[in-house]
Automatic annotation (TrEMBL):
<keyword id="KW-0812">Transmembrane</keyword>
<dbReference type="InterPro" id="IPR025436">
    <property type="entry name" value="DUF4179"/>
</dbReference>
<dbReference type="Pfam" id="PF18705">
    <property type="entry name" value="DUF5643"/>
</dbReference>
<dbReference type="InterPro" id="IPR040680">
    <property type="entry name" value="DUF5643"/>
</dbReference>
<feature type="domain" description="DUF4179">
    <location>
        <begin position="41"/>
        <end position="126"/>
    </location>
</feature>
<keyword id="KW-1133">Transmembrane helix</keyword>
<protein>
    <submittedName>
        <fullName>DUF4179 domain-containing protein</fullName>
    </submittedName>
</protein>
<dbReference type="Pfam" id="PF13786">
    <property type="entry name" value="DUF4179"/>
</dbReference>
<feature type="domain" description="DUF5643">
    <location>
        <begin position="220"/>
        <end position="339"/>
    </location>
</feature>
<keyword id="KW-0472">Membrane</keyword>
<feature type="transmembrane region" description="Helical">
    <location>
        <begin position="40"/>
        <end position="62"/>
    </location>
</feature>
Length: 341
């Protein structure tokens, strides 16, 4: 059955199978993949929330139960472009398969991966409500990482049918000691879903928790500094994993520049010597201990295309007044990295 046929399937017309048959089908589907099952952790506080909400929400805490619901799989395919930025996500990500339903909205976390710096989660939503073309999610913390002091990142939600949406979230947790653990524990508790085209807002009780192990990666130290009149930018390293490429950097700006522009943050344009475009004006997560005078962060993109021998990283500093009051762009010299073969 094709993906389109699966998506368009009328759930009411499905023939119910015994649990044993479904489990066999799911094992058969995933045995050919390199994806691994996520270890699950539950503390007393989380368990209490699930029990209290049992009268209003239907929770499926384990993949064996979630697999009984005809829903989505391979969500990442909707976010792959011509450059196949997520081409290895399906093979090396962890199969989460957690599903919860509340107030006519079913949310499923499909897959997730932790590359040692960033976390990417694919998810799907099925709803009885008319949210229109654009949906947003309200949550106190988008995805929360146990032990992290905060996180920054981006997310996108795409409508694929009248009742279904797919989503992708990439975020970078920040740890006070600057060290990233071998395993991260992730929680997510959306409070409400609301439409961007009408006044619809649906509150409910959804709660997820799962663990992710760090992917093995190769780090190539760079430590190249580009000096501008008011900005000093250092590309520290590039880490390569099976699903992503992570660049780590730090920068310092002068007091004079900050007096004129209170916010100075970098965005990146990354290509290779074969012409592939990896990111085109994208920032990343980071922290500043001194109100922007120094800044340390990372940004990530997909795995390097086969055959590429050079990575060209162009940094543009966005000096801003904030709140759409105006900005100035400071273009830095590109950094060319010779890729190890």
């Amino acid at each position: 059955m094709s993906m389109k046929e699966w998506i368009d399937m009328d759930i009411d017309q499905l023939e119910l199978l015994d649990v044993t048959d479904i489990e066999k089908a799911r094992v058969k589907q995933h045995v050919l993949k390199k994806r691994k099952k996520a270890p699950f952790w539950h503390n007393i506080a989380v368990a209490a929330v699930i029990i209290v909400g049992a009268s209003t929400a239907t929770g499926f805490a384990f993949p064996s139960l979630a697999s009984q619901i005809p829903f989505m799989d391979n969500v990442i395919n909707y976010f792959n472009d011509e450059e196949q930025h997520y081409k290895n996500f399906e093979a090396f990500s962890t199969d989460i398969g957690l599903t919860e339903t509340s107030n006519g909205i079913t949310v499923m976390i499909d897959n997730a991966v932790y590359d040692g710096t960033n976390i990417t989660v694919s998810f799907a939503i099925e709803t009885d409500h008319d949210f229109g073309e654009a949906m947003k999610i309200s949550a106190p913390n988008w995805f929360d990482i146990v032990g992290a002091s905060g996180s920054g990142g981006s997310n996108q939600i795409t409508k694929i049918s009248d009742t279904r949406y797919v989503g992708l979230s990439t975020f970078t947790p920040h740890f006070k000691d600057g060290k990233y653990p071998e395993t991260v524990e992730v929680t997510w508790s959306p409070h409400a879903f609301y439409s961007m085209s009408n006044d619809l807002e649906v509150k409910g009780d959804w709660s997820f928790d799962f663990s992710l192990d760090r992917l093995d990666g190769d780090i190539q130290l760079v430590n190249e500094t580009i000096q501008h009149k008011d900005v000093s930018f250092t590309l520290q390293s590039v880490e390569f994993t099976d699903v992503s490429t992570v660049i780590s950097y730090e920068q310092a700006v002068t007091d004079e520049l900050l007096e004129q522009w209170p916010s100075v943050t970098p965005v990146f344009y990354v290509t290779d010597d074969l012409g592939h475009v990896y990111i085109n004006g994208t920032g990343g997560g980071g922290v500043s201990p001194d109100n922007g005078k120094t800044f340390k962060g990372t940004t990530s993109f997909g795995a390097i295309q086969e055959g590429a021998s050079k990575l060209i990283i162009q940094t543009v500093e966005i000096a801003s007044l904030g709140s759409g009051q105006g900005h100035n762009e400071i273009e830095l010299e590109p950094i060319v990295i010779e890729l190890k073969q």
